[in-house]
Design brief:
The chain is α/β, with parallel strands linked by helices. The protein contains ten helices and ten strands. It has one domain: Rossmann fold (3-Layer(aba) Sandwich), CATH 3.40.50. The chain is 33% helix and 27% strand. Strands 5-4-1-2-10-9-3-8-7-6 form a ten-stranded mixed beta sheet, with helices on both faces. A hairpin with a 5-residue loop joins β9 and β10. α3 packs parallel to α6, α4 packs across α6 and α6 runs parallel beside α7. The protein binds adenosine-5'-triphosphate (ATP). Adenosine-5'-triphosphate (ATP) binds next to α1. InterPro entries: AAA+_ATPase, ABC_transporter-like_ATP-bd, ABC_transporter-like_CS, P-loop_NTPase, PstB-like.
Length: 267
């Protein structure tokens, strides 16, 4: 028996194989091959315009909403082709939730924000319970439990972002995609959201785009470094340089470009 046979292998949630992503005739990202594992935080890093958000939005088919956007190659979710005709993108987005750069609570009460998706999905369970569980998981319950009827917009930026996380959690997703979730937050709120990400990975798989390299080292298990290069047409196309354990990417990456980027020499 080989000595590694007792180490449990992580479950693959998404598998990206030779995927290129286009906006019309413009190829934004080329030839990405990458796996995303269950209950891990995977960080996507790299200079501006290398296609991190573009790839992130493919995982819940958000790019479908952009006219002309398409994927070549294959992206599977639980071994099933995510872009197959029979796959319902609305159901994909329920299972693969998303938190955006700028907190975007609805102009509704805190309570109504959390149950929004549940109501749309005609949730049959106890809404009060759902609100409490989701807000607790988002580390916001203690701060808002006495003012659930107040507007979500009355909260601070950091609280609003945790409310958006609670709203995402309340639809019971399996994966949470985060597109620079802390870039509009102050350092203390950022730390809170980072602690929350640590908690959340026990129950969810997380993919996070971040410009903040310290954040990637603090929150992620694996890091994918993307870069961009000029094409003959004069465009820039993004590509994956390497993906590995975060400690490897930041301390002993295989590629010089990765070392240069993580040590702040460009980008
Ligand atoms: N909706 C869109 N329509 C057309 N082109 C787009 C669209 N969104 C992004 N792009 C282009 O795709 C390329 C990759 O953009 P993307 O936002 O994915 O990069 P990024 O690495 O996330 O950048 P940043 O770090 O600045 O957010 C860029 O050239 C961008 O202009």
């Amino acid at each position: 028996m080989d000595s590694h046979s007792t180490i449990p292998q992580p479950t693959t949630i998404f598998s990206v194989a030779n995927a290129s992503i286009f906006y019309g005739s413009f190829k934004a990202v080329r030839d990405v091959t990458l796996d995303i594992y269950a209950n891990q935080v995977t960080a996507l890093i790299g200079p501006s315009g290398c296609g991190k958000s573009t790839l992130l939005r493919c995982f819940n088919r958000m790019n479908d909403l952009v006219p002309g956007a398409r994927v070549e190659g294959k992206i599977t979710y639980h071994n099933k082709d995510l872009y197959e005709k029979t796959v319902d993108p609305v159901e994909v987005r329920r299972r693969v939730g998303m938190v955006f750069q700028k907190p975007n609570p609805f102009p509704k009460s805190i309570y109504d924000n959390v149950v929004f998706g549940a109501r749309v999905n005609k949730y049959k369970g106890d809404l009060d319970e759902l609100v409490e569980t989701s807000l607790r998981q988002a580390a916001l319950w203690d701060e808002v439990k006495d003012k659930l009827k107040e507007s979500g917009l009355s909260l601070s930026g950091g609280q609003q972002q945790r409310l958006c996380i609670a709203r995402t959690i309340a639809t019971r997703p399996e994966v949470i995609l985060m597109d620079e979730p802390c870039s509009a937050l102050d350092p203390i709120s950022t730390l809170k959201v980072e602690e929350l990400i640590h908690e959340l990975k026990q129950n969810y798989t997380i993919v996070i785009v971040t410009h903040n390299m310290q954040q990637a080292t603090r929150v992620s298990d694996r890091t994918a470094f993307f870069n961009a290069e000029a094409t003959a047409k004069g465009n820039r196309v993004g590509y994956l340089v390497e993906c590995d354990a975060t400690s490897v990417i930041f301390n002993s990456p295989k590629e010089q470009a990765t070392m240069d980027y993580v040590s702040g020499r460009f980008g």
